[in-house]
Write a structure and sequence with these properties.
This protein is of the alpha/beta class. The protein has a domain of about 110 residues: GMP Synthetase, Chain A, domain 3 (2-Layer Sandwich), CATH 3.30.300. It is built from 21 helices and 32 strands. Strands 7-6-19-18-20-21-22 form a seven-stranded mixed sheet, with helices on both faces. Strands 9-8-10-13-14 form a five-stranded parallel sheet, sandwiched between helices. The chain has a four-stranded antiparallel sheet with strand order 23-24-26-27. A hairpin with an 8-residue loop joins strand 6 and strand 7. The two termini are about 45 Å apart. Bound molecules: adenosine-5'-monophosphate-propyl ester (PRX). The site of adenosine-5'-monophosphate-propyl ester has 22 residues, from helix 12, strand 22, strand 26 and strand 27.
Amino acid sequence: MVGEVWVKREDGKFWPSEEMKKKANISDESIYEKSYEDPISFWEKMAGELHWFEKWSKPYEENMPYFKWFIGGKINMSYNCLDRHLDERGDKPAIIWEPEPPHGETRVLTYRELYKEVNKFANVLKSLGVKKGDRVGIYLPMIPEVQIAMLACARIGAVHTVVFSAFSSESLKHRLVDSNAKVLITADGYYRRGKVEDLKSKADKAVEGTEVEHVVVVRRIGSDVNMVEGRDHFWDELMENAEDFCEPEVMESEDPLFILYTSGTTGKPKGIIHETGGYATQAYTTTKFIFDVHDDDIFWCTADIGWVTGHTYACYGPLLNGATLLTYEGAPDYPDPGVWWSIIEKHKVTIFYTAPTAIRMFERLGEEWIDKYDLSSLRILGSVGEPIGEEAWMWFFEKIGGGRCPIVDTWWQTETGGILISSLPGIGPFIPTFAGRPFPGVRMTILNENGEETKPNEEGYLVQKSPFAPGMLRGVFGNPEKYKEEYWSKFEGIYYTSDGAYKDEDGNIRIIGRLDDVMKVAGHRLSTAEVEDAITKHPDVAECAVVPRPDKIKGEVPVAFVILKGDYREGLENEIKDIVRKEIGPTATPAEIYFVDDVPKTRSGKIMRRILKKLLRGEDVGDITTLKNPESVAAIKEKISKTE
Ligand code: PRX
């Protein structure tokens, strides 16, 4: 079947079709100029579409490197996602959930049903002693309880910190300790590629020695789990007697909504703080304009809720807009590589938001899995998390979108809370490999080393200028120094993204990639230092350096150069990989480990990862005479060429 045509081709670029322009929430290009000149009024107008218990007295205030939005405004996130829609959309599906086959049935929660569950669980949290401002850990798979738990925290003003379910107990523990969480919400387990993943015993290990007083356990698989008397409770048992209504807490706009940990340049992930009113405004506005949600749309964002994409576009953004969101518990290629496409056909998904790594994987798995299904319901495609190459872009456009749907290549970060660069479906253009223009009301630009704006096609540092977008981070939990140093020290009064980029003549931005020691492995953000810290926990390892190597499917994979204390022995590779899995999780496992005698260092002893990166890519390493140990380069080069 051929669906409606939402895009047309002109001058080698793609533009919205007349149908798309007619349907789109925004199609007037003057929005860019108007909002650039007066971003504060633009955001005030958008915030005004949400429900405020009390309007703000001042829209924006800056005291660098801190800034505030909607000062004095009183708001509640769960009220805006739920209560606000009950009259008009009470019976409309809010969440459609697909289990990993064959373990269960599709679950549909209407806005009214979701409202009821959230209210009840908010009362459960209160009964466990959770108060406004307390931190609550959420370590759940992709089941509707994850959105229910997040919204329930928001309802009572508790700050959630969601931890990706594939992360190890060590990773969970670090986050629980750092955020000083009082309660943890987890599950007995979940299904992944037909296997049962045991979540509860990982949670048990993580909770030991922390301040966590209560653990709530969702029964997803019904396994026999160890329950600690007085500390552990089953979700369903607590919900049985919970009241149906919980008064939403009246929050200050600047009160924190969540903390989400992400990798920076050091060994330990940092807690990024997002507040309520500004984040809600940005999540609402970007979902409305970039994904162009309407009442008849079914929006599927494939990201796990453990990442910021899941927070903003598989929970808050669609619900703030009263949209129907779809979530899927399982892996993209199980029980076969047709599962995603079968879900799109079954539920007539109209907006589909995924990552380049998944697109590249499907490109290689063969088209027969796609051709079997009717994807004509699709209207808009989205990409996020890493640069999407031209080939993958065109394949996504032709094969999944049937050449009918625009692709919005959305650039943003955990720190930015919502999308900051993307084209808009009703305005365009959609240019392969270009993310597009800065979102209305956002002053993204590119600077050279001296802090001057770059010319078209000149590469530089991607930055954001004041006034900063409302959904931006407000700090690093418990570490104000880190906040200043990582984001505000490169250029005065300007937010530095750590990404390199350039603009074309029309101001469309193309992202080159990270300029720091952060890797994107299958779209997941990891720091080289984190993996190095895990590897050096092995007693035989004296020193190590981790760098990313390009990978056809995952984008990048970590490669480790290891210096041993003694001699090499059989089995070390696997032992090291196991440590990384245990300390961080499977995503961080090195794709290759080279045992070397030395790694290139500066005279002051700093490891030159840049040289290792070049060696892995087979590029010229340039002048190495100033190194402390230039001979190490040739030795490593030989090792690499042997394994190739
Ligand atoms: O390098 C950029 C890349 O992902 C980084 C942010 O990672 P994370 O905090 O995990 O958030 C990812 C999802 C929002 C950025 O610094 N990145 C994100 N989106 C794109 C991208 N690179 C190129 N194109 C994108 N669309």
